[in-house]
Design brief:
CATH superfamily of the largest domain: Beta Polymerase, domain 2
Number of strands: 21
Largest sheet: 5 strands, antiparallel
Radius of gyration: 31 Å
Oligomer: single chain
Number of helices: 25
CATH topology of the largest domain: Beta Polymerase, domain 2
Strand order of the largest sheet: 1-2-9-4-7
Number of domains: 4
Shape: flat
Distance between the termini: 45 Å
Helix content: 40-55%
Structural class: alpha+beta
Strand content: 5-15%
Length: 626
Amino acid sequence: MQHAMPTASPDFDFGQPPFDLLTDDQRTALAGALDIALYPRDAVLLSREEPTDAMFVVLRGTVQERRGGEVAAVHGPGDRFGLQALYGAAGAGAGGSTARRFVAAEECACHLIPRPALEALAAENSEFGAAIVGDFAQRMRDLAALRSNREMAALTMARIRQAYLHPPLFVDAAASLRDAAEAMRQNRASSVLVRGADGSVGGAVGILTGTDLRDLVVLDGRPVSEPVGPLARYGLLTLDRDDLLFNALVLMTKHAVRRVVVTEKGAIAGLLGQSDLLAVLSNHSQVIGLQVEHATDPADLRRASRSIVELIRTLHATGVKVSFIADLVTELNRRIFRKLFELLAPPDLLANSCLIVMGSEGRGEQLLKTDQDNGLILRDGFDCPDLADIAADFSRHLVEFGYPPCPGNIMVSNPDWTRPLAGYKDALFNWVHRPDEAAQMNLAIFYDAAPVAGDATLLAEAKDYLLSRLQDNQMFFTQFARPALSFDTPSGLFATLFERRRAEAVDIKKAGIFPIVHGVRALALEKHRAETNTVERIQVLAELGALDRKMAADLVEAFTILSTIRLKARVDLPDDEPEGEGEELAIDNLVHPDRLGKLDRDQFKDCLALVKSFKELIAHHFRLNH
């Protein structure tokens, strides 16, 4: 920063937002703390190389915000800048490579608001503090956009072995067209490989597809008894299993074919179809979905479930948004739970019960395999003699699939969570009208429940009963909302955490994610809303006027960013912290700020600042400080 001589400050324009939110006493305090600095044309007011100890508010003239060699924005009288630089984020691009500078486009003057004065006002006036955070959501989007090349780079590194390969199906050259068609039908295949061909092609392996059969028999009128050897196509396109998927895509496109033969150590390992290739280049959720659909026993489901970890890695590596990953993982998990229950439960149990998932799974926000949170609602009067064994098997298999047992025993194997609808209604009545700590936790968990298998109307009736029992009881909602403030968010409005304690790990769930989830949940329950997903709840609350639209947009953005950082912290483990032999991503909510890149660190700080403001809003709304 090119230093300018501070002078006595002329009258500050308190009519400009957000300074119009200050009280008279606060305005007096700010006026006493202000400095003014004068800058000649082309002077650098702020750059990423030098920190600052004040926020800038343009008094006169214009200031250009330059990123690299381009002008990204122009700030005129009343505009403010330097907030990120004030807290250690002065202007990084992706990986810190794109410098950001603020340069005087003409002779200009700026008010300088010192950090201590700004923080004192923000702490004293929460509305002003929230406004100072300023266009939070847009700033986060701008920072995230700097990752623009990451998706394509990761995409081009995907390997064929990440795709589903169709097992090779061989027939002899002497086999008839009918034999080939029957082999395809029995194996649900769309092609056969032909080996031992006649002298015209030597001993090469050829291919005959379902389309070839149609053309040969239906269009050309060849008899189905004709041998396939002379009719197969030879000179197959082959790639090794460790070749790039991108190479397979180029090869298919160049030769206008829909499949290539994949080899491993010289032997044919299978066929890669165009649809399977494209599935992996976007994600390989379709492959897992097919594995679940065709599962005939829990062992098949276990293999499909273990594939979800690699799916998470692939989607994350290709830059897919965390909300999309959560949607896919939620759908796949629910398919696995549903299929497992269908494999274990007799038809009458399926028809007279509703399997539910709760917690992050119920909200559709699960990214990693967290503790089981599930239950079973039975139709009143229905009895299943083997229910205890079925429930125990269900929980046991999920543990084998990589879903740890719930420490609070909120699982179908616990009779308290596998009971008739009337039993759930009794429990809900007690949770609402006798709200001790355990009751409030159970109520919060159940409020997030979603149906997975069986008769979904059973859960709908239980949810309707819950909402009908809620009363406009301030004490109840105050107690229900209180856990949102249970954990410390290690940040003032502008966290200096990263400057003082960079080596200390932060529990991102307790510090950032849970306060948003539970605070929003409390507001939604107060409005008797049936939505379960946190983002959907925020959007509905904004529509109802229960949340300021600006705060709602910021919360959605912060929730997304925190979830992304949480996932990244587990997927991108440092070299000195291996995951061991397990196939699962470790369940660990600790984030080490010193291990984050500059972009993530800047976003993390801003998110924690917003969470702090939201917790103050929740405390005020539910009178938690009284």
